[in-house]
Amino acid sequence: MTRILDPTVERGLLGELEPVVAANIDRHLSVARDWNPHDYVPWSEGRNFAFLGGEDWAPEQSRLTPVAKAAMIVNLLTEDNLPSYHRVIATAFGRDAAWRTWLDRWTAEENRHAVAMRDYLTVTRGVDPVDLERRRMRLMSAGIEDGPQGLLENLAYVSFQELATRVSHRNAGRETGCPIGDQLMARIAADENLHMVFYRNLVEAALELAPEAMMCAIRDVVLSFEMPGAGQPDFLRYSAIIANAGIYDLRLHHDAVIMPVLRYWKVFDRTDLPPAAEQAREQLAEFLREVDVAAERFVTRRAERNARRERSRS
Global pTM? Predict the structure, then answer.
């Protein structure tokens, strides 16, 4: 469905958007707060594993619930795959001028997330570190095969993805039941929100420069959206656990991720769209109506399951 831009047209858009990138780098740097991953790790809880004469991990050492374990594993492995994300974005955005400056800054900020999360989980023995390492190797060895194509699809995708990750991280932190874990995930979620704002602003500008192509890209991304961790081991099982716990589900995806960004872009308020863009918007609206119905159905069924579970306990 996507309209692949002619390479010459895409290069032209990269040039036209560069001043917007530069301005948003300045804005980002003025509000971003540097932080240190080691500050969010309770090092006093740490001890050696068997390789150094200590004790290897055992399930009873973890204070995390099964839900919290699933959420933290999925979120950490998502952050681990940063080299693949860097490659994809570098290919789409290029490596020149302001685009290169942003890519490097974004990568440096994102890299802190996996460092802090892994240190926290290892020191607190929240999850099996051997299993976690095996999962990381499998995921990163596979990399990313398919995903958004070209400049505009990638801009649309990261706008939604950064916000989706923010929601997932924030709720996973609460699920840990640990004040330090909650604080760590809130700090990471704050980074993701700033990244979302950066990309969201670029899409806003691209809608003015290339409304037809940008609207088609937004439609295609929303219709095919997958979280970046979708390729990791046991993702379907873990994502079901996460959804059933309300950490990230279809209702949140619709209400807290897709719709706020679309409203910011005034997607359904614009009156100046060319015919192909208008058609893309209509297809997007129809799809979102279906998502809304499915989300409501899921929430209702989850509530019914929870009610039955409570009755069986009483």
Answer: 0.93
